[in-house]
């Protein structure tokens, strides 16, 4: 758990999740995420990483414990603005890129004029301004994920939750999107909680990596990635990066013990 003296954007205390089937998916979990911090949750499949995101987003309720998010400087349950990027882009195939990004405003019945300005800004932020009138079938996998990211950013959320968004992409595209995501994070100052299976991705992106245990997921280890910003290809090929990856991999190994295929 972070001991930073800055204000917390997210605070979980004694959080557990037990499904109706009796499966204990998560916890107890105590976690603070500092405002503006980039944190990755790393662990094996089924360890509760995605469950934790859903609890933070309010898409599911904890079985026990509290989830609090900062709103106007105060931590409280249920008062927040969150953007969520899922593993699949989940785009509407019949709608243009612009109309896919417009969806949050339609759901909120926001004025069209206000939405248009924000949509143009979000598309520019993710490098898709020239593709506003394209349809999903005309886009690559990486471009579809950029649309999903624009849709998450368009309402200017305080907290950005990302659930393995680049897992299905080829390595070159993934590296490029990692770099672009860091650029966005630096410029927009969002609090980012990023779920991944990749040690290499977590170390490259994060200020802090949380290694979770096998189900029920708890915090098994925590690493601060202290490399200076901005990061780029020089960091990705450095001895420092390799050393961090070895440390995180070593801490992750017990989580896979006894897992199928281990």
Describe the structure.
The protein has 8 helices and 10 strands. It has 262 residues and is of the alpha/beta class. It folds into 2 domains: 1-81 and 176-262, Rossmann fold (3-Layer(aba) Sandwich), CATH 3.40.50.300; 84-157, no CATH class. It has a 6-stranded mixed sheet, with helices on both faces. The chain has a 4-stranded antiparallel sheet with strand order 2-1-4-5, with helices on one face. A hairpin with a 2-residue loop joins strand 4 (64-71) and strand 5. Helix 2 packs across helix 3 (112-125) and helix 3 (112-125) packs across helix 4. It starts with 7 loop residues before the first strand and ends in a 6-residue tail after the last helix. The mean pLDDT is 90.
Q: Name the CATH architecture of the largest domain.
A: 3-Layer(aba) Sandwich
The quaternary structure here is single chain
Fraction of helical residues: 25-40%
Tally of distinct domains: 2
Question: How many distinct beta strands?
Answer: 10
* Contiguous uncertain segments of 5+ residues: none
Q: What would you report as the Rg, rounded to the nearest angstrom?
A: 18 Å
Question: Which fold name fills CATH's third level, the topology of the largest domain?
Answer: Rossmann fold
| Net shape | globular
CATH class of the largest domain: Alpha Beta
Described by strand count, sense and barrel closure, the largest sheet is: 6 strands, mixed
What is the helix tally? 8
Round the mean pLDDT to the nearest integer and report it.
Answer: 90
Across the major sheet, the strand order is: 6-7-8-3-9-10
Distance between the termini: 28 Å
SS class: alpha/beta
The name of the CATH superfamily of the largest domain reads: P-loop containing nucleotide triphosphate hydrolases
Percent of residues in β-strands: 15-25%
Order of helices and strands: EEEHEEEHHHEHEHEEHH
